[in-house]
Amino acid sequence: MDIKAIRNDFKILGKEVIYLDSAATSLTPDCVVAAVTMYYSEYNANIERGVYSFSQEASRKYEEAHAKVAAFFNVDEKEIIFTKNCTYGINLIAHSLKLEKGDTIVTTLLEHHSNYLPWLRLGNKYGVEVKRIKPTIDGFFNMKDFEAAIDSHTKIVAVTHVSNCLGTIVPVQEIIALAHRKHALVLIDGAQSAPHFSINLKDLGCDFFSCSGHKMLGPTGTGILYIKEALHESTEPFEIGGGMIDEVDVEHYTLAQGWEKFEAGTPNIAGGVGLGAAVQYLKKIGMKNIEDYERKLTRKMIEGMKTIKNLVILGPQDPEKRTGVVPFKIPNMTPHEIAFTLDEIAHIAIRSGFHCCHPLLKSILNEPDGTARASLYFYNTEEEVDIFLDALKEIL
Ligand SMILES: Cc1ncc(COP(=O)(O)O)c(C=O)c1O
């Protein structure tokens, strides 16, 4: 991987910044910015509504973007719905589920609020139990807890693929197999996995997969929801209205098939086209190359941090079991003070606080102030990691 060439693809990296907050949102390569700009400057029109050439071109480009994302995840393009973010996709599925007394939902205390609150609300709405599996402080699970929790009453199991708070990779294949043996549906929150390693959704076999386009080089306001085709019929769209119907008369309507069924109203056309360009760019670099390079950077960061006296690293110590999301603490400094100081002394951008993971931080990690969190992506360099480590030493 030619990092220098890659960095030249990101105009923003010409600025004085060491961006270590890609778990929140990634930087955007120039090809994605160009795809968005081109929509507005070359063929700006609504999709699937006009017979004139701009509208035809906009429709074609938007459809092509679905096809590119579907190919990226090895599924049919009918199964890929463009959303505004990962949260929306999870809410769409939670909203659509019809539960009965006695049903249960299984989730975990490792989840981002986006994969926790929709299930809590659903549990309250139907008066059903939401079982919460507890991870260890490193974000690992005992599979026996899933075996005990998932039974014939379980309607859905909703679990994250990678923890945004600890970086831990969750063995979701095992959980999916277990849940399917009990005929439960499975939703995977892929916000922190899809940007960092290759995901073949057909092989993975989950029923639903939601992730953020904006964390995988796409424009903000983009997300991806995979719904297995066999479940399209039983899944109800969140919103209904224009652009997603088959036929409508005064009394009745029938909905379109495929992704159109779940994308009511004018979508984020420019964002969708930009997202198509983003996955094309990721594919060109190669997800395996990205994964290997990020693991090398993560190892360097963790090994370096381990040598700094009084600095506490959270999450798995083994880089094979985590991604480049690295939370840490410094005694007598709040996470916000650490983040502010890193920015001030070395223009380093990290996240601080609760990372939308209050249940984990409060009930498992016992970190009332949250943590500081550095997160890597493939455009970061070893030199940047060195500067980060030097800045931490200076602070301490
Ligand atoms: C694991 C995880 N799930 C869900 C989300 C929510 O993503 P979005 O902001 O795209 O809705 C995030 C965002 O940080 C996340 O890390």
How does this structure look, described?
The chain is of the alpha/beta class and 396 residues long. It folds into two domains: 3-28 and 286-395, Aspartate Aminotransferase, domain 1, CATH 3.90.1150.10; 32-284, 3-Layer(aba) Sandwich (Aspartate Aminotransferase, domain 2), CATH 3.40.640.10. It is 38% helix and 16% strand. α7 links the parallel β5 (154-160) and β6. The mean pLDDT is 96. Bound molecules: pyridoxal-5'-phosphate. Pyridoxal-5'-phosphate is lined by residues 24, 85-87, 112, 114-115, 160, 164, 189, 191-192, 212, 223.
Summary, kept brief:
This protein is an alpha/beta fold. Helices cover 38% and strands 16% of the residues.
Q: What form results from the Cα inertia axes?
A: globular
Report the average pLDDT across residues: 96
N-to-C SSE string, H for helix and E for strand: HEHHEHEHEHEHEHEEEEHHEEHEEHEH
Question: What is the CATH architecture term of the largest domain?
Answer: 3-Layer(aba) Sandwich
Sheet-strand content, in percent, reads 15-25%
SS-based class: alpha/beta
Helical content, roughly? Answer: 25-40%
Strand and helix map with partners:
Elements: H1 3-8, E1 18-19, H2 30-42, H3 53-72, E2 80-83, H4 86-96, E3 104-108, H5 117-126, E4 129-133, H6 143-149, E5 154-160, H7 172-181, E6 185-189, H8 201-204, E7 208-212, E8 223-227, E9 245-248, E10 253-255, H9 269-285, H10 287-306, E11 312-313, E12 325-329, H11 335-346, E13 348-349, E14 351-353, H12 358-364, E15 371-375, H13 382-395
Helix pairs in contact: 2-9, 3-9, 10-13, 11-13
The structure holds pyridoxal-5'-phosphate (PLP).
Pyridoxal-5'-phosphate (PLP) is lined by residues 24, 85-87, 112, 114-115, 160, 164, 189, 191-192, 212, 223.
